[in-house]
Design goal:
The protein contains one helix and five strands; from the N terminus they run E-E-H-E-E-E. It is globular, with a radius of gyration of 12 Å.
């Protein structure tokens, strides 16, 4: 089984969210997850995609 593991940075460290791909493209799944679950902030030092509870999405891997 393939998974997309999404990495979020919070005050307690790096958190992982594991999403099963069901045979779909993992990059597209990660992009869709980002678009649904995060909001982009463009202020200089805080630039990035943040969840509603303030966690920064720092990347993803396919496993």
């Amino acid at each position: 089984m393939k998974y997309v593991i999404i990495f979020l940075l919070s005050v307690s460290g790096v958190e992982e969210i594991k999403v099963e791909t069901h045979g779909l493209n993992c990059g597209e799944i990660a992009k869709a997850w980002r678009e649904v679950n995060t909001v982009y902030r463009g202020a200089k030092s805080e630039q990035g995609n943040y969840t509603h509870d303030g966690k920064l999405m720092i990347g993803y891997i396919c496993e």
